[in-house]
Amino acid sequence: MKKKVLLMGASGSGKTSMRSLIFSNNPASSTARLGATIDVEQNHVRFLGDLILNLWDCGGQDAFMDSYLTTQRSTIFQHVGVMIYVFDAETGQMNKDLEYYRDCLDGLTHYSPEAAVFLLVHKMDLVQEPKTTMFEKKREVLQKATGDVTITVFGTSIYDESLYRAWSSIVHTLIPNAAVLNKHLNIVAAACSATEVILFERTTFLVIATSTSSTSSPFSSSTSSSTSISSPTYTSSSPSASDPHQMHPKRYERTSELIKAFKWSCSRVREEFHSLEMDMYDFTAVLDEMTRNTYVMVVVHDPTIETAAIKLNIRMARKKFEELQGDSIGA
Amino acid sequence: MGTFLPRIQSVFYAGFDVTAGPKIICQVPEGLITVPQPVPSSTFPSLPPTPSSESAPSPSLPPLPASRNSNLSLPAVVPLTDIRPNYRNFSSPQGKISNNQAPLFNFEEVSKLVIPGPALCGRLVICSTKRHRVMGFPSLLRGEKYPRNFFRFNLCFVFERTADLSCYEPIVRKISRVLASCEEESGFLSVSDHVAIHAILEQLYEDLNSYSETSIPIDQFNSIELKIFPFYPNPPAVKDWMVPVALINLVRRIEDNWDLTMAKVCRYIDGVNHVSRIAHLADCDIKLTREAISHLLYYQVIMTIDIFQYSNMYTLRKSIQWLADEAHVKEECGPYSTKPGFPLPDWPKLLHLYSRMKPGRTVLEWMEEYNVQELGVDVRRFTSFGVIKGFLRRVHRYPIFLPGPSKTITQSPTSDDNTISTTNLKRVRSFTGMSLELPIQSPESPPLGQHLLRGRATHTAIPAISLSSDQATSAPATPRGRINPTTSNADANEPYSRPRRPSAAERILESVRNRDQNLTRSPASSRTSRINYSSEPSSVSTVVPGIVDTANTPKEKSNTPMQNPRMELGLAASRRQSLIPPMPATNVPPNSPNIPRLALNPPPRPRIERSPSAPTTRVYNGIAAKSVLAPVPLEYPTDLMELLDGEHHADELAVKFEAGWPLLEDWLRRIGEGHNGRVLIIYR
Predict the structure, then answer these.
(1) CB distance from B121 to chain A under 8 Å?
(2) Which residue has the higher pLDDT, A92 or B535?
(3) A110 touches chain B (CB under 8 A)
(4) Cβ pair A63:B18 closer than 8 A
(5) Which ranges are annotated Basic and acidic residues under compositional bias (chain B) (predicted)?
(6) CB–CB of B140/B48 below 8 Å?
């Protein structure tokens, strides 16, 4: 199954860098050496076995944008699954940006009314403190400019884990049967007496599904889902009652980021990352391959449970997940 | 042709702006390439004006209105009417449109190829619009100092779409190279203002169009030096069997300082001599001769046609449809093709004659059928007129040897070895594919050669030759010794069905064979007695339908049906017209069978000549062919086998082995019989 993902935004807003970080596994520092994207660069990313993300990285210069909105309008905006519009948090041309954004939104709603829209306020690392205020302001402006199309806004930066959170959410919308995966992850969690079981995509390490449905779920927002404006990662959330272990709300994306960095380090010494076992003071965690395209992380707070046992369970669950993976993507 | 250089319609310099994207920075003449105007904004009040991407600095224009996208008010431009999404104007970037020239095209059509992605950078890129072509060499320079880490530029030339751009390619490459290195050295392009670049463009445009050369200083140390050389394409390879035809009077242009070979060779270019003959006549090395002809081809002062032989076949090309109506064709054909003293036939008549040429019909047959002789048409000139004008094309014969399964021969005492059988009776297969029983009495007689060649070949069913009598009932030439269902050839007298009706040549050759065999027994056999067969519809599709050995066929005073008188006439005519001198019959084995009984003049051959000084031809049968009575050369050259791969046509083989078509055909037939397989002729 192919899903077309449009990545648009002003020139220099960070689209290609994002793509390089998440999908090509380059470290954040290497993105400084990228050049401007000429017209549209298409990438096919095999995400989960059958799911192929057809990523359209559209150059943001005026000449290109004008062309997308006029001569190439139907080509660009047809058959879109997700549109990600990137705003530079520090831009001096907000009006111009907004205008192009509106135009793109028009095109999208016309040609692909079913597409999901995500707005990323990027380069948040450059924003002065307090970041949350600034983010909120931006979000309001964007909401106003959008009108009544459903959008989800994230604040992101390639230099921290926020980008992983945003992209995990984005990709999550493309996996139709996440609920099923969720259910089975719960079964695994129960079998391992685990606090949490998380399923990652192998190459990008984006979170696909988790076993918990706590408030700090990586996907849904803390407020009601109908308005679908997720809480920005920059708000601090106090530990809720459902989280006795006081797990860090950003643990998912942090994990993604850290493991990816570690994988990259491994590749630099020409080794391949396979699995991770942690036997810590307060928890035990095992990160291991689940299927061909996924990794699973099992976090257990029960001190009596050995990592070997967890690994055994994972091994036994493998077959089921492979089966599920085929189903979950199935058209 | 090469001397006309296409005119440069426009020169422009394009770059990549990190905000605006690919854009034309300057162009000469101005305004020819339009740039898309973005839609003006009405919704959002703008921040400080961003300069419009299209405008080159032009002091005459008022400051742009503050909006995201500005419109330049311009003459001769469609005025902005409503503000709608998707509506854009295309306007010239500057106020003036010079020379009242209409815009050529819009930059957007080509911008993706003028400023392309990294894959196309550093390569010559030519793109076309509806009426023009744009040639450029996009450059991509990496550097930390540049915004977004790269500097892109492209200096392009615009031509008419139909122009031949080959001579400008080195120019475009060089300009790009020089500018790129200037940029690397001193940041010339990224730093300098557009006025300097504009001046360069102007000078390029003027000088290259006017003088085809220019010298532009860039800074203290660098300059652009350009000169356009007319560019002829490389000529095709020159083959020995090609016949050069002069398009200008070469001899008159020979000067003292000319290359010696060239001077000698030019004198023999007469539209009849082929290259190897020219080499011989001019007494030059063949390789040097080929070089000289190649040079003449390069400068397009000669063209090549093929060797004229009566056994050639021609056919019309598609271009006849319009060439038949061309005045120059209609008017020139008659005078060129008619022999002096004859009235000029009118063009419809000539056209009719041309249309009667088709593959499978040789020139001689065509001549006979349409009484070309009586019209006084010089056939050689007639056909070469058609070839030169381009509406007639030679159909070549490409022989190809296909090895095939051999059928067992019930009796085959003769094998491929060269031993002479001690038995008196040998199974001999004639070249026609018959098996004959012959007593061998004289080892050195020609039939020996025949035996050796005929080995294990199988043949079509053929009527047997009864050798007891003088008459040799010959089978028609099974073309090329086809593989036949095995029938026991034991009984040579069994009548077989005849595959096809032999031509006169074949009959003659056959008769010679039989006669020669008979000679051993009965020297008195008349050569005329052989012809005795029944006709049979041809079932062969691959064989040359009618091989008529025309002028070479010796005049036959006996009862060869039909063809002789015409052939004689043809001989006479060809003798007059062909410029190939008759071959002395003494030194070299004749190409065609000579009938010992007839006193023959060595027939003039309008075909490949073997020159007396040519390297010795192969020894045939160990018998020096000194006299007219010499027997037919029976063996074929061994090299010939390798060349029967369908890639070498008969002319090439003929020149290489110095054998005319009839002899070549004979050899091919022999090969077909002598080996397991068959020889097919492909017409192309």
Answers:
(1) no
(2) A92
(3) no
(4) no
(5) 503-518
(6) no
The identity of residue B52, as a single letter, is: S
Q: Name which residue leads in pLDDT, B399 or B53.
A: B399
Beta strands in B365-424 (DSSP E): 392-395, 397-403
Contact call for B22 and A63, based on CB within 8 A: yes
Residue B502: pLDDT band by 50, 70, 90 thresholds? low
Burial of B374 (0-12, 13-18, 19+ CB in 10 A): exposed
Q: How far apart are the first and last CA of chain A?
A: 7
Q: Name the pairing type of β-strands A40-48 and A80-88.
A: unpaired
> What 3-state class would DSSP assign to B31?
coil
The structure tokens listed for A261 are 């960095």
B22 touches chain A (CB under 8 A): yes
Cα three-residue angle A315-A320-A325, rounded to 5 degrees: 115
Contact at CB, A35 and B148, closer than 8 angstroms = yes
- Predicted pLDDT of residue B279: 92
Tokens of A35: 């050049």
B113 shares contact with chain A (CB less than 8 Å): no
Assembly ipTM: 0.80
The pairs formed by B610-615 with CB atoms below 8 angstroms and a separation of 24 or more are B610/B583, B610/B658, B610/B659, B611/B277, B611/B280, B612/B584, B612/B587, B612/B588, B613/B280, B614/B280, B614/B658
Q: What is the mean pLDDT of residues B172-181?
A: 92
Q: What local confidence, expressed as pLDDT, does residue B618 receive?
A: 41
The answer for residues whose C-beta is within 8 angstroms of residue B103's C-beta and 6 or more apart is: B31, B32, B33, B34, B90, B92, B97
Q: Residues B399, B681: contact at Cβ < 8 Å? A: yes
Contact B83/A at CB under 8 A: no
Determine the 3-state secondary structure of B400 from DSSP.
Answer: strand
Mean pLDDT of chain B: 68
Q: CB B117 to CB A69 under 8 A? A: no
At residue A253, the pLDDT reads 83
The alpha carbon torsion through B171, B172, B176, B178 (nearest 10 deg) reads 10
Q: What is the pLDDT of residue B491?
A: 40
Are A39 and B117 an interchain contact pair (Cβ–Cβ within 8 Å)?
A: yes
Residue pointed to by tokens 């008969």 = B650
Q: Which residues of B583-599 are buried (b: 16+ CB within 10 A; e: fewer)?
A: bebebbbbbbbbbbeee
Residue B356 C-beta-side C-alpha neighbours within 13 Å: 18
- The number of residues making up chain A comes to 331
With an 8 Å Cβ cutoff, is A70 touching chain B?
yes
- When scoring B148, B152, B153 by the number of chain A Cβ atoms within 10 A, the one with the most, hence best to mutate, is B148
Most A-contacting residue of B19, B53, B144, B151 (CB-CB within 10 A), to test interface: B19
Q: B39 vs chain A: nearest CA distance in angstroms?
A: 8
Residue carrying the six token digits 């999908």: A23
- Chain A hits for B17, CB-CB cut-off 8 Å, are 61
Phi and psi at B564, nearest 5°, equal -65, -50
CA distance B466 to B377: 45
Alpha helices in B489-561 (DSSP H): 504-521
Find tokens 């995500």 and name the residue. A118
To the nearest whole Å, the CA of A219 is away from the closest chain B CA by 34
What integer pLDDT is reported at residue B49 of this predicted model?
39
B42 touches chain A (CB under 8 A): no
Structure token digits, residue A176: 């139709």
Give the CA distances from residue B311 to residues A320, B431, B564, in Å, rounded to whole numbers and listed in that order.
81, 21, 16
Looking at per-residue confidence, does A232 or B12 come out higher?
A: B12
Rounded to whole angstroms, the Cα distance separating A187 from B399 reads: 79
Task: Give the 3-state secondary structure of B611-639.
Answer: CCCCCCCCCCCCCCCCCCCCCCCCCCCCH
Of A35, A41, A66, the CB nearest to B36: A66
Q: Rounded to 5 degrees, what are φ and ψ at A85?
A: -110, 125
The pTM (predicted TM-score) of the whole model is: 0.56
